[in-house]
């Protein structure tokens, strides 16, 4: 079953921030097509763990690669035995990498005036 969705800002999937496995579960179960994922109409349920894994990996990619502006996995086919991305397209833009350990030293205000 193909799944709808899109990736928004870095560290997010579908515009929602991913913090833990509960967030991933919520994203999957709140889709309009969520009943179909659980085996609606006699169809077997899909492997939700595989879908959550794909979402977690895309979120991690967006977090680790600040140049990632857009990712389109279309379609992502979820089946009882896993999930497969048939086609993927990413768009990158040049951005300076974020370094959380980078310190910027400033001159004291008195030194700037004199």
The figure for the number of domains is 1
**What is the straight-line distance between the termini?**
69 Å
The 3D shape can be described as elongated
Output the helix-strand order. Answer: EEEHHHEEEEH
CATH superfamily: ATP-grasp fold, B domain
Unreliable segments of 5+ consecutive residues: 5-12
Could you give the count of β-strands?
Answer: 7
How many whole angstroms does the radius of gyration measure? Answer: 20 Å
Derived structural class: alpha+beta
Tell me, rounded to a whole number, the average pLDDT. Answer: 79
- Main beta sheet: strand number and arrangement? 3 strands, antiparallel
Q: Which architecture would the CATH scheme give at its second level?
A: 2-Layer Sandwich
Percent of residues in beta strands: 15-25%
CATH-defined fold name? D-amino Acid Aminotransferase, Chain A, domain 1
Q: What fraction, in percent, of the residue positions are helical? A: 25-40%
DSSP helical segment count: 4
Pfam family, one: ATP-grasp_5
Biased composition (Low complexity): 1-18
Protein name: Acetate--CoA ligase family protein
Region (Disordered): 1-20
């Amino acid at each position: 079953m193909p799944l709808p969705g899109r990736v928004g800002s870095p560290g997010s999937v579908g515009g929602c921030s991913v913090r833990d496995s509960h967030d991933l579960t919520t994203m999957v179960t709140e889709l309009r097509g969520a009943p179909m994922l659980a085996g609606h109409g006699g169809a077997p349920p899909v492997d939700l763990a595989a879908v959550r894994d794909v979402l977690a990996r895309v979120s991690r990619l967006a977090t680790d690669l600040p140049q990632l502006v857009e990712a389109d996995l279309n379609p992502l086919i979820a089946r009882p035995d896993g999930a497969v991305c048939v086609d993927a397209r990413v768009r990158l833009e040049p951005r300076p990498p974020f370094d959380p350990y980078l310190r910027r030293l400033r001159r004291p205000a008195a030194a700037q005036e004199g």
